[in-house]
Fold this protein.
Amino acid sequence: MFLIKFVGYFSEKTAHKAAYIFDMLTVGFSSLRGLKNYSLVIFLSTAIMVTYALTSYFGFFTLGMENIKHVTFTMGWVLMSISAIGVVIPTPGGTGSYHVLTKAALVLLFGFGDTISLAYAFLTHIISYMIFIIAGLFFFFLLNKQHDNLIKIVETELEEL
């Protein structure tokens, strides 16, 4: 691949990592069979991205930023794309990097003030964490209950033997 050869000129280690990642992606996508599975992957990926963009868009209204400046869904999409880079940067929970990139995008691209931009970054970050924690606890207890039921079923079948 051209990209891997190009990266290899600068760093052979990085080129090997890139080749490994590309191979894993190829293996993963090769496991998909049929138009239904491809369609499902495309639909769910799109649904996830639209949901994230809507979350960024609704964040404007949570702080009343629409009263400062006209907001659009496109602004939410762009902000979601830029702030996602902050989550990818290896910091604990995206803390700091998410806030800096979100604030910079809001100030430099959309013309909001520093204070409201940092408030937006903090609020959207804490809300997403709360949602993850609540969903995690819900599924933990749900799966734990199913695990307990499975153990009871196995124990009763073992007693019958």
Residues 33-160 form one domain. DSSP finds six helices and no strands in the chain. The two ends are 59 Å apart (CA to CA).
